[in-house]
Design goal:
This is Beta-xylanase. It catalyses: Endohydrolysis of (1->4)-beta-D-xylosidic linkages in xylans. The termini are close together. The longest helix is centred in the middle third of the chain and has 18 residues, at 97-114. With 300 residues, the protein is α/β, with parallel strands linked by helices. The model has no long low-confidence stretch (mean pLDDT 98). Helix 10 packs parallel to helix 11 (288-299). It has eleven helices and nine strands. It has an eight-stranded parallel beta barrel, surrounded by five helices. The structure holds ligand G3I. Residues 43-44, 86-87, 126, 169, 202, 233, 271 line the site of ligand G3I.
Length: 300
């Protein structure tokens, strides 16, 4: 196959990208995105500050622009994200306790109702763990340790058709404390019947040429708990070809690794633009890393 999406589809996986609504008028950008990818994540437009800027007043205009652009081209969409310590609207940042807990529930219900039946998956909870493997301190965590499972139970009822994911970064190295913290939570959720379908490993790699220790073991270990795994926000310092090929191969080697999403189209679109971390250069040309990923997908 000659595109990332078609190549991934040969093994029933997807290859996605993050899209920014503000760039949909850039034809170089949309041409690449519409050609290469078959799963789309809104980079910022479905986050809490975007979707509920005032309490009780939802705004889906930018999120819908991305959803419409994608689905008009037959591309699927992942929702990102519902409950997160960052990018909360100001009114939510100032809440605490039962008031914040109710606001979280209302937010999940409001956003998921709008997209009910339309999205492949939701990142229900994002980045809730600290590097040492304990829960990250946040206003949400302060509402009680059960806030994550409440978010997932709320989400399942709000849209039973969406796959419900926990999403985080620095959970790629199997021996890292944070990976183990997330793993133990997922194992606990599965054992107690808390509804969760998938774990998103953001996969923001920062240097070197080899993968974080036992990356594939991390994927297969999560999968063995009975959840799908996905690489949800991939970018790699200087787009190391060996790291890009390796992360792709690791996903291909794990049957429940269902897809890979890169966090932007061209280097110039990236939140890490100074590190040239993506598969297309600022001019929209395919980089060596693109070829390494495509070849790995085609060899599967
Ligand atoms: O929209 C405003 C614009 O009106 C204003 O003029 C401008 C001035 O700074 O800011 C714009 O907002 C920025 C927004 O991106 C849209 O460009 C924010 O300042 C900026 O903080 C925000 O950054 C985003 C970041 O999440 C915020 O947390 C990045 O684009 C986005 O790539 C990044 O994505 C996160 C994932 O959601 C979760 N995992 C980590 C990943 C990278 O940080």
């Amino acid at each position: 196959a000659t595109t990332l999406g078609a190549a991934a589809n040969q093994s029933n996986r997807y290859f996605g990208t993050a899209i920014a609504a503000g760039r949909l008028g850039d034809s170089t950008y949309t041409t690449i995105a519409g050609r290469e990818f078959n799963m789309i994540t809104a980079e910022n437009e479905m986050k809490p500050d975007a979707t509920q800027p005032q309490r009780g007043q939802f705004n889906f205009s930018s999120g819908d622009r991305i959803y419409d652009w994608a689905t008009q081209r037959g591309l699927k969409v992942r929702g990102h994200t519902l409950a997160w310590h960052a990018q909360q609207p100001g009114w939510m940042q100032s809440l605490s306790g039962s008031n914040l807990r109710q606001a979280m529930i209302d937010h999940i219900n409001g956003v998921m109702a709008h997209y009910r039946g339309k999205l492949a998956a939701w990142d229900v909870v994002n980045e809730a763990f600290a590097e040492n493997g304990s829960r990250r301190s946040s206003n949400l965590q302060s509402t009680g340790n059960d806030w994550i499972e409440v978010a997932f139970r709320t989400a399942r009822t709000a849209d039973p058709s969406a796959k419900l994911c926990y999403n985080d970064y620095n959970i790629e190295n199997w021996t890292y404390a944070k990976t183990q913290g997330v793993y133990n939570m997922i194992r606990d959720f599965k054992s107690r019947g808390v509804p969760i379908d998938c774990v998103g490993l953001q996969t923001h790699f920062t240097g070197g040429s080899s993968l974080p220790g036992n990356f594939q073991t991390t994927l297969s270990s999560f999968a063995a708990l009975g959840v799908d795994v996905a690489l949800t926000e991939v970018d790699v310092t200087n787009a190391s070809t060996s790291q890009y090929a390796g992360l792709t191969q690791a996903c291909l080697n794990v049957p429940r690794c269902i897809g890979i999403t890169v966090w932007g189209v061209r280097d110039s679109d990236s939140w890490r633009s100074g590190e040239s971390p993506l598969l297309f250069d600022g001019g929209g040309n395919k980089k060596a890393a693109y070829t390494s990923v495509l070849n790995a997908l085609n060899a599967a």
